Amino acid sequence: MSAANRSFSNQQTIIFMVVLSFVCALILSLLASALKVPQEEAKEFDRSKEMLVAAQIYSSKGYFQLQENNKYVVARYAGAGVLEPGKPAHEPTKSEIMDVVRARIKPFLVDDQGIRHTFEEEKVNLDEYIADFKKKGYANLPLKLVYEILPNPDKKHAAEKPIGYIIPVSGFGLWDYIYGYIAIKPNGDDVIGISWYEQKETPGLGANISEAPWQSLFPGKKIFQPDSAGSTDFKTSPIGITVVRGKVKDVLGSSPKAESAVDGMAGATLTGNGVTRAYKDTLTPYRPFFIRLHNTSGK
Fold first, then answer.
1. At what angle do helices 3-54 and 94-104 cross, to 10 degrees?
2. 3-state secondary structure of 36
3. Is residue 195 a contact partner of residue 181, using CB atoms and an 8 Å limit?
4. How far apart are CA 221 and CA 242, in angstroms?
5. What is the torsional sign of CA 242, 243, 244, 249?
6. Nearest-angstrom CA–CA distance, 201 and 278
7. Which of 26, 69, 231, 248 is most buried when burial is the number of CB atoms within 10 A of its CB?
8. How would you classify the pairing of strands 191-198 and 242-243?
9. Would you give the distance in Å from CA 33 to the centre of its chain?
10. Is 271:261 a contact under the CB 8 Å cutoff?
C-alpha cells in the first residue's frame, strides 16, 4: 500500500472513531436525560417511605401499622390516606404509600428561636430548598426543615394535634455522607423511631445502620441526655443519641445516660462515631424548637 493510501486509511479510521464517540456520547446524554426524572422520583419515593418508617407508620417488614393500646398493629390502606387495623390483601403500592405521606407528613420551617414558618409565607420553594441544601444540612440554615406527623385522618383522630415531628439528619460516616430521619414525640425529647435512607457504609458492618434490627434500638430513647442524677435541663443538657462501643448495659449499665445511648455495631466503630456526631450536630441547632415543644406539652 502506498503512503498516500495509508494516510487516507488512517484519516478514515480517525473520522470513524470521532463519529462513533460523538454518537455514543449523544446516546448516553439522551439516556441520562430520559432517566433523570424517573431516578429523582424513585429517590423522592424512597425518602418519603423512610419518613414513614421513622414515624412508625410503615414497618420495615413491608406493611402499614397503627398504634393501639401502646403497641403497633398491622394496618391496611382504606383510601384517602386513611389506615385501619387489619391484615392487608397485598403489599402497599407506591400510590398508597404516597397517599399516606401526603395525608400525614407535612413540612414546615423553624427559625433560630424555634418559631414556626410556612414555606408559602417565606416564599421558599419546597423542592428547590430540599435539593439545594441536602448536602449542607438543613440544621445549619436560618430556616430549618421539620416535618410534622399528623394522626391517622379517620373520623376518630382527624381533629387531633400532631403526634410527632421528623428531623432530617445528615453527617459523615466511614466512607461518605449519610442521610436519614429521626422522629420525636410532641414532648420534644422521646424518640419515636429513626431511619437512614442513603449511606455507603461497609456491607454487613456499618451498613447495618439501615437495617431494622439496629434501628429498633432507638424508639423510647431520649435526645436530651440527662445528667448522672437523672435530671434534664433542656437549656443546657447535651443533645443527641450516643452509639457506644459495645453494649449499653455493659458500658453504662442502668445509669441515666443509658437513656440516650444505643448499642454499637460489631466492627463498625467509626460508622457508629459518625452516627453519634450526625445526631449531635443535626439536633443541637433545633434546641429552641424542642424547648418550645417541651414547654407546650408540659402545659
1. 50
2. helix
3. yes
4. 10
5. positive
6. 14
7. 248
8. unpaired
9. 27
10. no
Digit-coded pLDDT (tens) for 109-130: 999 999 999 999 999 999 999 9
Rounded to whole angstroms, the Cα distance separating 125 from 107 reads 12
Going along the chain, which residue ranges are E strands? 64-68, 71-79, 82-85, 105-110, 116-117, 144-149, 164-172, 177-184, 191-198, 242-243, 261-262
Angle at 115 between CA 275 and CA 170, to 5 degrees: 15
DSSP 208-220: GGGSHHHHTT-TT
Backbone angles phi, psi at 172, to 5 degrees: -120, 125
Q: Residue 226 corresponds to which cell in the numbers above?
A: 440527662
Which grid cell is 77? 390502606
pLDDT at 56 (0 to 100): 96
227 CB-near residues (< 8 Å, 6+ apart) = 233, 237, 256
Cβ-contact 290, 234 below 8 angstroms: yes
pLDDT for 16-48, tens place per residue? 676 767 667 666 666 555 545 555 677 788 899
C-alpha cell read off for 167: 428531623
Rounded to 10 degrees, the C-alpha dihedral 291/293/294/295 comes to: 90
> How far lies 76's CA from each of 64, 80, 98, 195, in Å?
6, 12, 14, 22
Q: According to the model, what pLDDT value does residue 41 have?
A: 73
In 3D space, the residue among 289, 295, 292 whose CA is nearest the CA of residue 144 turns out to be 289
Nearest by Cα to 70 from 192, 171, 231: 192
